[in-house]
């Protein structure tokens, strides 16, 4: 599923594609995408005649700002937007179409149908679900080392599920949590209350650095997001731990091992990320087998791991975290 960097790239692309466009009409082909209002006619009537002023983001949610209205959109597993000429044939899995007065149309496609859309009066979106309870925004100026330390508090939760909790910090999913913990040298099964001051600082820096470089990678290849059909999708980004099971850690060359933490596939270098006492048996067993495997010829590291916004790179059938 898309995480903060992917959603941020979609946001930037949408911002350049639809800002200034006025909605002539709206076609709803799959009403279940609409959450508020859930009636297609009411949804369309609220949008018609309004102009998009820009695309913003809160966590993994897009905030598409119109004059007098805000559309909150979550892509979930496979949602994607594309800008088309209105007369182009409508492809399957196209669920909502915003027809513009200039003859173009923004189309929302979603094979898995998990995506959501809410309409709010400006400002009200922050007072109700789904944005109300969201935690720290990691790329905002308000995300300081101090704010992060406070958010972690003395919690006895394992650090990985804690970072995945959108009420603590937003935008991090399975991929970038593994990446940030590897960069910070912290084992995902450490509990927050056992992290030292310097470890918390390292983790703070690692979260910022990981997300920023991913956003820059996405931002710099933003054109490749829009294919001939104006559809955004592919994302290429270099990963250190996620999806690299059995490949050498780029810091110490130990093999990356994979095990499960809180039900999520987790990628770790056990030399750089020292396990706490009582770490899961699976971690130890997996480490041993990975070490044995690494005694053989090492696989050459792939230059880039392809991630797709539809979540194929994000662990297959896992359910969205929010
Ligand atoms: Zn390592």
Automatic annotation (TrEMBL):
DNA binds at residues 93, 112, 155. GO terms for biological process: base-excision repair. Its cofactor is Zn(2+). Its EC number is 3.2.2.23, 4.2.99.18. Pfam families: Fapy_DNA_glyco, H2TH, zf-FPG_IleRS. One of its GO terms (molecular function) is class I DNA-(apurinic or apyrimidinic site) endonuclease activity. Keywords: DNA damage, DNA repair, DNA-binding, Glycosidase, Hydrolase, Lyase, Metal-binding, Multifunctional enzyme, Zinc, Zinc-finger. The active site is at 2 (schiff-base intermediate with dna), 3 (proton donor), 60 (proton donor), 264 (proton donor). The keyword Hydrolase applies. The keyword Disulfide bond does not apply. Binds 1 zinc ion per subunit. Monomer. Belongs to the FPG family. This is Formamidopyrimidine-DNA glycosylase. It comes from Cohnella xylanilytica. The lineage of its organism: Bacteria, Bacillati, Bacillota, Bacilli, Bacillales.
